Amino acid sequence: MRREYRKGEYLLRQGFQGTWVLALVAGRVKVVQSEGEKKEALIALRGAGDLVGEIAAPRNGRRIASVQAVDPCTAVVLEWTQLRACLGKAADGLLLEYLGTKLAQAGPYKLRLMHFKPERKIARLVLELAALSDPSVANPDRVPFTQQEIADSLGIQTSTVAEHVKRLRAKGALVERGHLVLGDREALHRAAGV
């Protein structure tokens, strides 16, 4: 079954039980975790072709994170047993490989957030969001986060984000058009250290 989600809508909620996964067809999502009253911490970004909910589904377990639409999204709801049946005999190996790849990406992601300077963190977040754009995204160069959302996602102060966005704009890496837009990609790559 296909489902449509509006920007900002939660596809999955942390703590809820689930036996299904969502296969993203279009749009981008952010995977966030929260603990108690604290703000949500960005764990990962996902786009078309990715699965979400795949960790809890096989065990009918509780979701370990929430998934929120960054853009309008389309996803296909698949019961875990249905997904395994679609993949056939290779299901366990393919799913383990997929999970391993996604978990391997999460470690370096968290490391970057801890050890990089704010400008590099911001530049990498913007580049990752751009890389996850698909044809359904109306303006793939538009940064879909406000400065407050960037601050919350990266665990830094909004004033720090504003200062470094200003620097990135001075370098031409970002452009302000009522919202942030990617500018000179080479400058953005240099700021990101990639």
Molecular structure report:
- The structure is a single chain.
- This protein is about 40% helix and about 25% strand.
- It contains six helices and ten strands, in the order ββββββββαααααββα.
- Strands 1-8-3-6 form a four-stranded antiparallel sheet.
- Strand 4 and strand 5 form a beta hairpin.
- The termini are far apart.
How many E-type strands? Answer: 10
- Taking pLDDT < 50 over at least 5 consecutive residues as the criterion, the unreliable ranges are none
Largest sheet: number of strands, sense, barrel closure: 4 strands, antiparallel
Strand arrangement, major sheet: 1-8-3-6
Order of helices and strands: EEEEEEEEHHHHHEEH
Average pLDDT, all residues: 83
Query: N- to C-terminal separation?
Result: 39 Å
The helicity comes to 25-40%
Helix count, per DSSP? 6
Decide which structural class fits the backbone.
alpha+beta
What's the gyration radius in Å? Answer: 17 Å
Overall body shape:
globular
Portion in beta strands:
15-25%
Layout of helices and strands:
Elements: E1 2-5, E2 10-12, E3 20-26, E4 29-33, E5 41-46, E6 51-52, E7 66-69, E8 73-79, H1 80-87, H2 91-115, H3 118-131, H4 147-154, H5 158-170, E9 174-176, E10 180-182, H6 185-192
Antiparallel strand pairs: 1-8, 2-7, 3-6, 3-8, 4-5, 4-7, 9-10
Helix pairs in contact: 1-2, 3-5, 3-6, 4-5
Quick structural gist:
By secondary structure, the chain is α+β, with helices and mostly antiparallel strands. It contains six helices and ten strands; from the N terminus they run ββββββββαααααββα. Helix 3 (about 120-130) crosses helix 6 and helix 4 (about 145-155) packs across helix 5 (about 160-170).
